[in-house]
Amino acid sequence: MAATKLRTPPRLAKDTLRIIPLGGLGDIGRNMAALEINRQLLLIDCGVLFPEDDHPGVDLILPGFDAIADRLSDVVGLVLTHGHEDHIGAVPYLLRQRPDIPLLGSRLTLALVAEKVKEHRLSGVQPRPVAEGDRVTLGGFDLEFLAVNHSIPDGLAVFVRTAGGTVLHTGDFKMDQLPLDGRLTDLRALARLGEEGVDLLMVDSTNAEVPGFTTPEKDILPALQRTFATSKQRLIVTSFASHVHRIQQVLDTAVAYGRKVAYVGRSMVRNMGVARDLGYLTVPENTLIDLREIDNYRPDQVVLISTGSQGEPLSALARIANREHPAIKLEPGDTVLLASSLVPGNENAVYRVINGLTKLGARVVHRGNALVHVSGHASAGELLYVYNLLKPRNVMPVHGEARHLIANADLAVATGVPRERTIIAEDGTVVDLRDHQARVVGQIECDYIFVDGSTVGDISESALTDRRILGEEGFISVVTVVNLRAKTVLSGPDIHDRGFLEDPTVYEAVRGRITQALTDALEDGVDDTHRLQQVIRRTVGKWVSDTYRRRPMIIPVVVAV
């Protein structure tokens, strides 16, 4: 059922469990959910969404935790399912408001969060490491953690027992039966929980449209080896800075082909250092070198592992493609391997970088022309398996765009979950669970929170609209001086523009119109500069629209004497 334009939710009854997604439903990112029972809140994940082209000037987008800003004292804990940015990236911004929220997650996840906390100079943070098999009680929430396999080590699902019912939140997962680290999704635990009874399954939807089973991680090794074997000069490999398994494969292959490895990009250096220190990444001896040492080796003796797989403008790879990187200059014949997927919304940015690299003479190997990446998410076959194993009473697909959520719900129905018990929700949908039945009971505001430099939450949608207009259409400024008593235009209009036509002669055709419109307004008794500015805006706007079919931002200034 859809969750659009619903009523304000009712007061929560005693021993009823309320679930509110605060992000991640409709987007690939900013994953977060709030569970409430008897005035206590449990949060699951707190990630970021990376901006797209229609978010000019925005660095990050946070979940809608403004919706619970006045309830943070009721939060008993924040569960972090794994260490990807779309699940932990917003944690420091939440902790700014209440730093002592207990953080529950695996060792690697909490270590990655600790680095973020250090960057934000926060104190008083309370990490509580957990592992698969652990059970923890936080207020009215009894939590049990399960191992799940994903594209980053130490992923966890969480089973939540409450007086209102049980919820299983899968986090991001897949069912790779030959994982590189030997850590399988715990199917025995899932079967046991299915026997106990899962009232609500909140399940990863990212690959719900993909038939069959997700390809095992090990299957990319031949393509990786082939790329190394055919690269006669420098090789640059890009990946997510948290994809420890992929980096391990690159390190091992580099050793096999006699290449030294240098990390490029601050987040890559930081995350791989954390993974190595905790034993999740094995770096063969005499393999790793500092980036400043690469000129001491022939190009065919070096492989660079870089950030920038999503075409981020300030990433290392984008700077290399634009010839702006201070230490790396791409040469014709070099090879660049993009060992990652395309996050929806990033396609244009990635292909811009690929085109830039190709123009510089590089051979670019990517998912479109070689098996150099496999997904970290369960495909339809695996999701069907999970539904049949758990037999959930109610299902709420999470983590995906609308098409992913709907496809996932269809899979649930195919396995016997009644259609009316599959909830297609959106951010801010309020779902109450009681007597084994989940029902949509309302909707709350759950807007994007934009981060722009050091500014958090002060950028509105209207401000973004202004930025889009400035970027796409330019602006025209019109300055005039009027005498309100004499009802005359004393000076101007002086017209300037940026990003529109930037040809001052074209405005001769409209100056007389502006003067006449102002004179008419003054003679009609208009003596307010704001209303006179509106006269200018309407006059110039109509002229621009009629003449050029454009809609620049028009900035009128009227000085009254």
Automatic annotation (TrEMBL):
The active site is at D204, H377. Homodimer, may be a subunit of the RNA degradosome. It comes from the Bacteria. One of its GO terms (cellular component) is cytoplasm. Zn(2+) binds at H82, H84, D86, H87, H150, D172, H399. Binds 2 Zn(2+) ions per subunit. It is not clear if Zn(2+) or Mg(2+) is physiologically important. Its cofactor is Zn(2+); Ca(2+). SUPFAM superfamilies: Metallo-hydrolase/oxidoreductase (SSF56281). This is Ribonuclease J. The lineage of its organism: Bacteria, Bacillati, Actinomycetota, Actinomycetes, Propionibacteriales. Ca(2+) binds at G57, D59, D452.
